[in-house]
Amino acid sequence: MSHQPATPPSYLPILASVSMLIFAIGSVGWVQGKGYGLVTLILGVCALILVCAQWFYRVVIDGQTFLANNAVFDRSLRIGVMWFIFTELMFFVGLFGVLFYIRVWALPVLSGQVGSKLMTHVLLWPDFISNWPLLQTPDQSLSQIEAIEPMGIPLLNTLILLLSGLTITISHFMVLKSQLKKSALWLAITIFLGGSFLGLQLYEYVHAVSGGLKLGSGIYGSIFYLMTGFHGLHVFIGTLVLMVMWCRMFLGHFSAKEHFGFEAAIWYWHFVDVVWLMLFVFVYWI
Amino acid sequence: MKSSTGIRYWISTTNHKDIGSLYLWFSLLMFFAAGAMALVIRMELSSPGRVLVDPNFYNQMVTLHGLVMIFGAIMPALAGFANWQIPLMIGAPDMAFPRMNNFSFWLLPVGFTLMLGTLFVDGGAPNFGWTMYAPLSTTYGPPSTDYMILAIHVLGVSSILASMNIIATIINLRAPGMSYMRMPIFVWSWFITSFLLLAIMPILAGTVTMLLTDRHFGTSFFSAAGGGDPLMFQHLFWFFGHPEVYVLIMPAFGIISEVIPTFSRKPLFGARLMIYAIAAIAVLSFIVWVHHMFVTGVSVWVKIFFMFTTLLVAVPTAIKIFNWTATMYRGAITFEAPMLFSVGFLFLFTFGGLSGLMLGIVPADYQYQDTYFVVGHFHYAIVTGVYYAILAGVYYWLPKWTGRMYSQTLAAWHFWVSTIAANLTFLPMHFLGLAGMPRRIPDYAIHFADFNAVVSVGGFLFGFAQLIFVYLVVQNVWGKKGYGSVSDQVWECAKGLEWLLPSPVPHHSHDEPPLVTKASYEWD
């Protein structure tokens, strides 16, 4: 078969769109502190999760029915997932752009070290000194805050994610050798490592907040929480996806030849891993 | 087949032709919504002093006119063409992900419910221009800014999913023999555009997310007091924004490259070079963004670098203009409506491009920055450029889609009235700008009054001329007495797979992929 058969009409997209509308209205209500905000937001998130679950379920069923063994659709999925990961990567490229711009350019200029001295430096904040991590803002509004020590939990988390990259590769290898039970075991270890990463990250946040570092603690807090937070969100999603794959493994969805769902999850996991390495080096370490 | 009339049919359809039509109708609706805002702006500026609205509402109109025209009118129109034409032109039965295709479309009404809903929020709609510069959008932004941010997220998701779909379709669903270099230029233009969208949309999403956290969670990304930098917003925005304007123009180039050979009865001159030129423009689009920021105090070496890269864009663009002209050279040209708009595009887009070169020169830009010269420049590029290409595309492919012709006489009226009105509207803006009239200000000095009156008359004329277009399309799609049915070929010398299909194109086409032996731009 050189082409894929027509997809039947579906109400999932319109349900997803309406959920998105509820989610958006809820988020705005929530950030603006409206009474209906949080309830609507939770409603929207639940609706989105339900529709997503239903949608992915549909994709799995399609893959076993009218699109089963369809090489064309398989290739489409591979291309789709690959470029989806690319676009996710570009999101982090934007965030790293912010990090480098702030560290290399904005802070040195504000402190008068680079370029001609700006009026902001001369008139507003002549005492400002540029550092990274930036523990005191130009307007001197912070009380004592502690920087995150890179060689503690962050290093441990790096090792955990690197190890999880290894275990998931072993799991994939086992699928390729048709040893599904062993594969499921190694996948379970990977999921455990992902969960440990998230737990440690949460612990680190609690520790950081008690050390005075908050989202509002100047540009260091802003960048730190936004970058690691979005990465953590991606690890969370990746772990959920791996859990689904673990269940699908027991439902007999995968064989040595047909396991693209699992492969896509592996690609995603490696993407999350690579982003973390960059985060570890440029946000925590250097 | 189910009846194609009920709402249930349209919200659940997975057919690329249905979804393409939805995109195009939605785009027409948004075009008139944003067009009405433009007329409010022109009414206010028709004479000095306060005419119609208060300055704050004027700013809201300026903001929404830009956002809705770009994200609601132009991009969906081009996406509509992509949906209709790409599967037809590469011999595919449908898009690669038909269900996701439906989702990409139905996110748009959600996005614009949020975006236009801002008009009814306490404090009014966003009033800081479509560029959303911090701190206007952070410290001083009205509460509705949050709805705008979420709307941009939703529209970004829509664009990303549509781009993934187009990429997978083009890579994977080409008919046997349709190699990359045999693909029609229109398909190539959308192929490259999709990669651009995948690269820039997440950057915009991240940027507006930072706006949101700056507004509500105490972060300091765009506030120097906390160590951030408001200028960084402009860098981020234009790193998205400049490729974004090429996202608008490149599919337009693709349409023009299909139309001109047909009505010149000659193969496209230098077709491969056309593809390379689009690719070159796409690559260059990532290294020109600071030319929007020449007066912000970036260092002089940065300015010189970005001036050179900006002027470099003229090279591939000039190749395209030259090739279109060379295609027409000694051709047996007839001026049906699509060709009228394409030739109009050639003259007027080139004009807009040349004023762009003037703006790209740093010392000159010091004079032009934030004046009406800029407004005139990009309206030539977008209205008489992209919008004309969209009109050319509709007039070119509509008979294929519906199997009926439209009135060439009325379409010619549409072209001539639009062209006279567009020049009446946008040409004097250059003079106003050179004389020093700032943009985005609801009032002006008395000596600008005459030109502004001309511009306003032109604007209204242009707006009402588009009603001819609506009449022609509605009449073509639903009208009882048409202007005759068309052959499968429709236009005498149209080449490409879509013209081998029956007219109107059946609901399911290319179920058996055709065998392709040469490119549509290689003629016998």
TrEMBL record, chain A:
Domain of life of the native organism: Bacteria
Gene3D superfamilies recorded: 1.10.287.70, Cytochrome c oxidase, subunit III, four-helix bundle
Record-linked CDD domains: Cyt_c_Oxidase_III (cd01665)
EC numbers: 7.1.1.9
Predominant place of localization: membrane
Transmembrane regions listed in the UniProt entry: 12-31, 38-57, 77-102, 155-176, 183-203, 223-246, 266-285
The keyword Translocase appears for this protein: yes
InterPro entries tied to this protein: Cyt_c/ubiquinol_Oxase_su3 (IPR024791), Cyt_c_oxase_su3_dom (IPR033945), Cyt_c_oxidase-like_su3 (IPR000298), Cyt_c_oxidase_su3-like_sf (IPR035973), Cyt_c_oxidase_su3_a-hlx (IPR013833)
Keyword Transmembrane among UniProt keywords: yes
Subcellular location: Cell membrane; Membrane
Residue stretches making up the Heme-copper oxidase subunit III family profile domain: 1-286
Similarity comment text for this entry: Belongs to the cytochrome c oxidase subunit 3 family.
PANTHER family: CYTOCHROME C OXIDASE SUBUNIT 3 (PTHR11403:SF7), CYTOCHROME C OXIDASE SUBUNIT III (PTHR11403)
Name of the featured protein: cytochrome-c oxidase
From TrEMBL, chain B:
TM ranges: 21-41, 61-82, 103-121, 147-173, 185-212, 245-263, 275-294, 300-319, 340-362, 377-398, 410-431, 451-474
Pathway info: Energy metabolism; oxidative phosphorylation
Keywords associated with the record: Cell membrane, Copper, Electron transport, Heme, Iron, Membrane, Metal-binding, Respiratory chain, Translocase, Transmembrane, Transmembrane helix, Transport
Primary subcellular site in the record, as a coarse category: membrane
Keyword Membrane found: yes
Subcellular location, record wording: Cell membrane; Membrane
Catalytic activity reported: 4 Fe(II)-[cytochrome c] + O2 + 8 H(+)(in) = 4 Fe(III)-[cytochrome c] + 2 H2O + 4 H(+)(out)
EC number: 7.1.1.9
PANTHER family (alphabetical): CYTOCHROME C OXIDASE SUBUNIT 1
Role according to the record: Cytochrome c oxidase is the component of the respiratory chain that catalyzes the reduction of oxygen to water. Subunits 1-3 form the functional core of the enzyme complex. CO I is the catalytic subunit of the enzyme. Electrons originating in cytochrome c are transferred via the copper A center of subunit 2 and heme A of subunit 1 to the bimetallic center formed by heme A3 and copper B.
Membership in a protein family: Belongs to the heme-copper respiratory oxidase family.
Name the record gives this protein: Cytochrome c oxidase subunit 1
Organism: Candidatus Comchoanobacter bicostacola
